[in-house]
Amino acid sequence: MARSRFSDTSGPSQRQLRVAELIRRRLSDILTQGDIHDPDLNRLSITVGEVTCTPDLRTATAYVLPLGGGQRDEALDALRRNRSEIRRVVGRSLQLKFTPEIRYEIDETFDRLDDTRAMFADENVRRDLDRE
């Protein structure tokens, strides 16, 4: 069983989901429009796949992936280097008492999807599936 990104076994609250989605959208807009004054960050095309928030909404984790999957370390370095400016810009659009600290992680969803496809393409697995 895959480990959940949420610490609570019942899953995130509606408020956590709503705030996470607002952060994801705003973060995507910021990265697309080049609102951050860092040429290294602005030349990268970064996709924000998902954002999760802690129950107290003090910390958000953004799962990101550079276009094409390359330059992962460079993208994480640029995002982490500009985290305070990104947090300030995101915070302007949120109507929260506190703007969450945003942490960045590589989104490995696509890698897991490729691994799953490769597994189902394996001859032994196909044979077992065809039997059923």
Automatic annotation (TrEMBL):
This is Ribosome-binding factor A. PANTHER family: RIBOSOME-BINDING FACTOR A, CHLOROPLASTIC-RELATED (PTHR33515:SF1). Keywords: Cytoplasm, Ribosome biogenesis. It comes from Silicimonas algicola. The lineage of its organism: Bacteria, Pseudomonadati, Pseudomonadota, Alphaproteobacteria, Rhodobacterales. Gene3D superfamilies: 3.30.300.20. GO terms for cellular component: cytosol. One of several proteins that assist in the late maturation steps of the functional core of the 30S ribosomal subunit. Associates with free 30S ribosomal subunits (but not with 30S subunits that are part of 70S ribosomes or polysomes). Required for efficient processing of 16S rRNA. May interact with the 5'-terminal helix region of 16S rRNA. GO terms for biological process: maturation of SSU-rRNA. GO terms for molecular function: ribosomal small subunit binding. It comes from the Bacteria. Monomer. Binds 30S ribosomal subunits, but not 50S ribosomal subunits or 70S ribosomes. Pfam families: RBFA. It is found in: Cytoplasm. Belongs to the RbfA family.
